[in-house]
Amino acid sequence: MIARRLWVLGALLPVLAMLTALGLAGQLFRYDLERSLDRALLAQAAVESVSLFDGPGQKVHLHMAVSPLLEQVRPFAPHGYLYGPDGSLVVSYPQGPAGVDAGEERLVPGEPGGEPRLLTQVDSNGERWREVRVNVRSPHGERYALRLSASLGQVDGSVGTYYRMALSLAAVLGLALLAVQTALARKLARRLAAITRHLGQLREGDFSRAPVEDRERDEIGQLRAVLAEATERLRGARETQERLIAGAAHELRTPLTLMRTSMDLALRRERTPEELRASMLDSRREVDRLAVLAGNLLDLAVAGRGGWDRKRGDLSQLISQAVEGARAEAERRGQMIRMDAPGPAEASFDAGGLRQAVDNLLSNALKFSPEGGEIHVRLLREGGRYQVRVADMGPGIPPAEREVVFEPFHRVLGDVHTSGTGLGLAIVREVAEQHGGRAYVASEPRAAGAEVVIEIPVALRAAS
Questions:
Q1: Do β-strands 79-83 and 374-382 pair in parallel, antiparallel, or remain unpaired?
Q2: Are 456 and 385 in contact (CB under 8 A)?
Q3: Per-residue CA distances from 443 to 329, 355, 397, 398, 453 (Å)
Q4: Contact 146, 136 (CB under 8 A)
Q5: Which of 389, 432, 393, 425 shows the shortest CA–CA distance to 407?
Q6: Taking CA atoms, which of 64, 239, 327, 392 is between 20 and 30 Å from 405?
Q7: CA 20 to chain centre
Q8: Which H/E stretch holds residue 215?
Q9: What is the pLDDT of residue 251?
Q10: What distance in Å separates the CA atoms of residue 146 and residue 110, rounded to the nearest whole number?
């Protein structure tokens, strides 16, 4: 299909257009040659008409017949005929009957002073002749008719040579275009076939291989680059999904196992009401844990879909509300929250999603900070972005884990803090990215603890 289109659009149509242009140029060339011949005939007629009677005794004659260059101009010199008042042929060049070039044996002169007549005649051999007829008056008042004829064979020969050369060049160019378009079509077909095969692999769920390398920088090369990036993202998304499913299965299995064990022990023998109550309380705690996990999984799924209602609002006010909401828990733990924020900070954000992300950061900071510790919340502006920075006084995050800590179910401290689900920071990053920003662990050295940063742009824009 591509080859046929390239042949038609890249070779056939250009050759047809070129042939049309050459045909029109040939017609203009013929017209110009014929007009040049007409001007030559008119010039010759003008010379002959004023010198017909300048011979000895005003004898009528044609100058071309007595020219010293007669032999040199004979192949292309026009034929001349002079007719007397009665229409009979008086003088001719070359010698012979007037009918040799489709002329008449008799030509009655008209009234002198009129416009010269230009016409085309065809002789008995099919040769075309161009002629001019002029009426002149002799010194004695007699009327004569001068007829000059020139063969159009040279014009036809020149035009024929032009067409032969033009058609030969068009044929060579057409073959060259056909060869070039064939090579180009095969190359494009190979490149598109590679992309098609890769799309087939993606359709089958194989994200392990990138598209075939393409060094070209045209639109197909750009498509290949975009497809390679999309494949890489799909592979990353699948790996993330698999890790999420594996982590969720692991997190779900633990409370379910504990609940089943508690129930099995309660059913193994008769239990007192107090023992049954204790068993039910244990199961209730695991149910609560499952509910929290399910809620966090739902929050992560909602954050990933990005159905946000971004509006202009005061980011400083949202942070202040989140801090006030966490103060009660901080006081219960014997901790303090300090907030540094400028005046109104106008930005475009989804209030519910961003509030949840800040709440998650505060919850982590409270959980990992020791009793009597301080959580420092800052709101800064860096260029076209706002930064929400939450610092705690906990054990900190090792540099090697500052990136993976945002993955679902990842825990830096192993099983020391088992109350969380390991989804808080994953939700934070998803919210930040859906706002066109990012979330990361600050790399500045701290005496103790860690500082997690949410960056969002000041102006509303699409998520990256």
A1: unpaired
A2: yes
A3: 28, 24, 10, 10, 10
A4: yes
A5: 425
A6: 327
A7: 32
A8: none
A9: 64
A10: 11
List own/partner pairs for 399-406 with CB under 8 A and 24 or more apart. Answer: 399/443, 402/440, 402/441, 402/443, 403/440, 403/441, 405/441, 406/439
Radius of gyration of the chain, Cα coordinates, nearest whole angstrom: 51
pLDDT digits (tens, 9 = 90+) for 242-265: 666 666 665 667 677 777 887 787
Query: What is the pLDDT of the chain when averaged over all its residues?
Result: 81
Say if residue 399 is preceded by a cis peptide, omega within 30 of 0: no
Taking the C-alpha atoms of residue 57 and residue 49, their distance in angstroms, rounded to an integer, is: 17
The candidate with the shortest Cα–Cα distance to 383, out of 310, 461, 462, 456, is: 456
Residue 150, pLDDT > 70, answer yes
Q: Give first-to-last CA distance, the chain, whole Å.
A: 37
* CB contact set of 106 (below 8 Å; sequence gap of 6+): 83, 87, 88, 89
The DSSP annotation for 50-114 comes to HHTT-SGGG----GGGG-TTHHHHTTTPPEEEEE-TTSBEEEEESSS-GGGGT--SB-----TTS
Nearest of 85, 81, 106, 105 to residue 95 by alpha carbon: 81
Tokens for 376, please give them.
Answer: 């420092």
Instruction: Kindly tell me the number of DSSP H helices and DSSP E strands found in the chain.
Output: 9, 12
Interatomic CA distance for residues 141 and 282, integer angstroms: 144
pLDDT of residue 102: 41
pLDDT in tens, 338-369: 998 877 888 888 888 888 889 889 988 888 88
**Alpha carbons 38 and 132: distance in angstroms, whole number:** 8
- Collapsing DSSP to helix, strand or coil, 117 comes out as strand
- pLDDT tens-digit profile of 34-59? 999 999 899 888 888 888 887 776 77
pLDDT tops 50 at residue 12: yes
Contact status, residue 385 vs residue 426, Cβ threshold 8 Å = no
Instruction: Answer yes or no: pTM beyond 0.70.
Output: no
Spatial contact of 62 and 52, defined as CB atoms under 8 Å apart: yes
Q: How far is CA 313 from CA 68, 103, 449, in A?
A: 106, 101, 31
25: pLDDT strictly greater than 90: yes
